[in-house]
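Here comes just one.
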Amino acid sequence: MASGLSRRRGAGHTTSSSSSTSPDSPPLSRSSSSNGVTNNSRTHAGSAFAGGSKIAWDVRDLPPDSSSAAASPEALRIGGTLPKLTLMEEILLLGLKDKQGYLSFWNDNISYALRGCILIELALRRRIAVVKDVVGGGRRRVELSEMIVEVVDERMTGETILDETLRMMKATQDPPIGSSTGEKLSISTWVDLLSGETWNVLKIGFQLKQVRERLAKGLVDKGVLRTEKRNFLLFDMATHPVADAGVKASLIRRLVEVLTARTTAVPEGALLPEGVQCRVLRTVCLVCAAYTASVLDGAMGTSYPSILPLGYEEREGAFARADEILGEFSVWPWGTGSDSGSTPASRKRISSSRIATGSSSDPSRESVLGLVAEARKEMGRIAQGQDDGQDLCLELVAGVLEVLGRLDSLL
């Protein structure tokens, strides 16, 4: 009787053809079989044919090729592959102290900003969008932050916090048969409910619990952070110092590149690798979310050998540009913030920069306009096939940024 190894090697072929081979003849190649059909399966360094102990492997355990990942149905639908870290994880990583492994105790903005990042991430993955038809008038009569949100794709994303939020929004929109009628809530309402900022006792259950700790554990699973215990006088607390400093350094490098650029062209170092979905818009959301979450100052103050430290004037200019970017991308369509002005601070800094330079051609302003132009080009590629050329998912992103732009006045 043939052994189990022979049966697995045969793969449906008889053992007589393989046994007829002379012992002195060289072994058959893995790329050929007895019937002359070429087998193009990839080789494995530890296979039994090479003298190793493994005779088989699961192709799902192998790292996917970039070409196959970019050609997947999900990548084609959303316009590219997903990055390694979500927007929420990037903001949390920027706010964490490298060696201590915890956030600043005086930061009151990051919890609210993380809830907004959850909506942005779901919109970028094309799971939620604003409704197209507004009841009671045109769309321009409704504030961007008051646009109604609806779930357009209820498939799970694989990220625990995103899936929990998506299920909650879907259950509110389409409740089970026999229960109360469904309702669709606005952008600002959802950010408030996820943060627990509500006086309605019936909506308390919408608050997401332990978001920062769950995001930190996700970064631990991805090898970016590690878990330690630190004693804080009367109690022990789990902290998460940075384990892979290169990941955080790449985030800070992206921020520095986009906030110190002097030309209209977006620096390649400010963007994610080629093929990642929404490269330009994800960098814009990173800048705006880091600025509103009050983690930009601490992140840019961290010293890394590969990043040149910024002087006082450069840091002030970077903050002014971050505020200007927020003003241009928290309106719809993008780039109309200089006219309507979403935040008074952005309008004040724009005018002061022009006065300081003595002309209207400020390099910082030109760089922001170049970023807006690149984002519009990217939106045009993503919105192909949309009705009326309108991408409702990206409009929701602008609405969330408007809510985050009013963060200091809300808290």
